[in-house]
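cron nightly-structures :: item 1 of 1
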Amino acid sequence: MLSKITLLGTRFPPPDTLQGEGSYAEMAREGVQFISHLNKMTLDYEAESKANRRQLEDGQQDAEKYKGDASMATKRSADLESEVKQLRDQLGRMQKDNEDLTTSNTRRFHGLEDCFAKLRALEKQEANVQHAIHKARCEMTTKFRETLTYIERQFDVVEWARERNFDLAQAEGNLQLTEEEDLIAAVAESEGAHQMLADEVMNLRRILRALPVRLDDGERIELAAASLGIRNFSGSNSETPG
């Protein structure tokens, strides 16, 4: 404060000169100037003090505002930390679910591989079954044809026997050495053989006109063949005359 006094360092007059009127007036003038400077300094100090007080109040208000912002920032930081914790928990659960899903998918993949292997084996078995069915149908067709050919030959034999029987009937009057009973028995035997072969031909034609044969219906075929009088389904009949 004293650094602003302009009278600092001013030399006062010697004591022997203070007895004059002019010296007292000079001293009074300098004292008045000193007091005026002192009042001015006081006013400047008060003005600066008021300004500093206002700045302090503004600083305190700013500090309160910053404290509020800091508390809000702290709360927001706590909320963010809580949210980060929740996200970490969710991430852990998702990782666990992902691991479980990966394990489940691995098991399903192995199961699908086993299913595909079984399916390929079944397809191979199905191909073998179809081949066996085709082979069985070919063999059955061959046996039917052989049986039909055999019966047609027997039918031709029967026709020839009937013709011979007709010839024998015509020659009956001319053959005096043949006994009548033996001739009648031979004719009856020929007619019975012809009727048996005709019935067997009709039965085979009924079988050939039936639906396509399935392997699952083997027992039904054998029962049907037995009901038609065919004892051996391979193409031979024990009752068919040789």
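cron nightly-structures :: done
Residues 211-216, 233-242 have pLDDT under 50 and may be disordered.
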